[in-house]
């Protein structure tokens, strides 16, 4: 099955700084790479995703980059704000709908 | 604005009780999921339904019994649960089961077993 890791497990940044979270996976059949944000006591919400035919995708302050050869993808958040404080999960998926594994999560704290 | 609705939000039950969790979506999605999430852990897949048929059961104990009565509804029937089953139970849906589909999650049911 898919083995998914995230680094770092916790991250503290000053408001306005950038944050980068890396997700590594093992299944070479993975071709869909979403990131979910879960605030305390709330549901996971998709914030950005990328498919394997694209190397980078950006949505305002959030971007995702993919290195399929090295089997990792990263979440980039620029100009961080206190409301970005949450746990972020990566969840690489294969095309067949067989693997539904989430990464262990990264707790991001944005300090005012 | 939650597109996947779960009820109840909280549930406390004894180990001998029988209860059900409910999940509803009206987005026309044909794949629905149950996840279990313990504190400070990622969601862990329990069941997947595709076109109202059970397609994945992640070796979940039989005290959890899923049901998908129609394309909009998903139930999880609970019986004789153990204290370690206390967790947040999340329902999710996606357009199809195939891997490149974003999942939409409900707010979850927080379950406590006494």
Mean pLDDT of chain A, rounded to whole units? Answer: 95
- The number of helical elements of chain A comes to 0
Beta-strand residue percentage of chain B = over 45%
Name the beta content range of chain A: over 45%
Folded structure, characterized:
The complex is a heterodimer of chains A (112) and B (114). With 112 residues, chain A is mostly beta strands. Chain A is 0% helix and 54% strand. Chain A has strands at residues 4-7, 10-14, 19-25, 30-38, 45-51, 56-59, 62-67, 72-77, 86-90, 93-94, 106-111. In chain A, the strands form 2 sheets. In chain A, strands 2, 4, 5, 9, 10 and 11 form a 6-stranded mixed β-sheet that branches. Chain A has a 5-stranded antiparallel β-sheet with strand order 1-3-8-7-6, with no helix packed on it. Chain A is globular, with a radius of gyration of 13 Å. The N and C termini of chain A lie far apart (40 Å). In chain A, 37% of the residues are buried. The radius of gyration of chain B is 13 Å and the shape is globular. Chain B has no helices and 11 strands. Chain B has strands spanning 4-7, 10-13, 18-25, 31-37, 44-50, 53-57, 64-70, 73-79, 87-94, 104-105, 109-113. The model of chain B has no long low-confidence stretch (mean pLDDT 94). Chain B has 114 residues and is mainly beta. Classes of the chains: A mainly beta (112), B mainly beta (114). Chain A binds chain B through residues 30-32, 34, 42-46, 49, 51, 89, 91, 93-105, and chain B through 2, 31, 33, 40-45, 48, 50, 55-56, 90, 96-108.
């Amino acid at each position: 099955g898919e083995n998914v890791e995230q680094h770092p497990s916790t991250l503290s940044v000053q408001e306005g700084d950038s944050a980068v979270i890396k997700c590594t996976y093992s299944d070479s059949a993975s071709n869909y790479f979403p990131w979910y944000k879960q605030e305390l006591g709330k549901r996971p919400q998709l914030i950005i995703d990328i498919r394997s035919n694209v190397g980078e995708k950006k949505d305002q302050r959030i971007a995702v980059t993919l290195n399929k050869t090295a089997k990792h993808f990263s979440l980039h958040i620029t100009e961080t704000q206190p409301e970005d404080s949450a746990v972020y999960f990566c969840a690489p998926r294969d095309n067949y709908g067989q693997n539904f594994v989430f990464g262990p999560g990264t707790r991001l704290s944005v300090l005012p | 604005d939650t597109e996947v609705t779960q009820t109840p939000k909280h549930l406390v039950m004894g180990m001998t009780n029988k209860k059900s969790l409910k999940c509803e979506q009206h987005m026309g999605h044909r794949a629905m999921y149950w996840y279990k999430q313990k504190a400070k852990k990622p969601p862990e897949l329990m069941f997947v339904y595709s076109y109202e048929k059970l397609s994945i059961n992640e070796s979940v104990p039989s005290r959890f019994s899923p049901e998908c009565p129609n394309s909009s509804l998903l139930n999880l029937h609970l019986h004789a649960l153990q204290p370690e089953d206390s967790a947040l139970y999340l329902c999710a849906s996606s357009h199809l089961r195939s891997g490149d589909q974003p999942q939409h999650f409900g707010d979850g049911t927080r379950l406590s077993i006494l």
